[in-house]
Structure prediction request, 202 residues.
Amino acid sequence: MFSKTNADKAFVHDTAVVDPGAVVGAGTKIWHFSHIMSGARIGERCVLGQNVFVANGSTLGDGVKVQNNVSIYSGVHLEDDVFCGPSMVFTNVKTPRAHIDRKHVFTETYVKQGATLGANCTVVCGVQIGRYAMVAAGAVVTKDVPDNALIMGVPGRITGWVCSCGEHLPGGPARAEYACCEVCGAEWIIDSASDGLVRLPS
Prediction:
């Protein structure tokens, strides 16, 4: 079960299982019926809701929030402050078959700092989701997502841009190269190298 050293620094509900060899950071909370496998690495101040599964070979940074009924499979890597909405889905094999063992071809997925994955969205393995991007509820992500992009639809496509505070920025997917958040006042420009947004110094 959970080593006493880590147990003193994190909260684990009585119904949750944390296997020996899992790393769980200080201040993290793991709620009802969740299972953390040996070899999983979870940072500090994370919150894992009910019925969350974290596999060996997956990593969560600090401040990650995972809502109910989410499975984080081997090869999925979440940076700091990522938000996973209820029942959203990760995968780690592109061509699964029940009768063929394909554990040797797990494809890694990277979700960068501050990104939001909405309820019931699906992230197909092998993609990178940029910093502070926002994937709408029910969307299906099949390719890389630039920083601060708003992704909607099936398959997912860029429909706009969002500030790091989470607010929608003026204009659409082909908006002008400059945008200012109407809520927090942050100013942004398009980064020509990555097609994502870069925040201007305040």
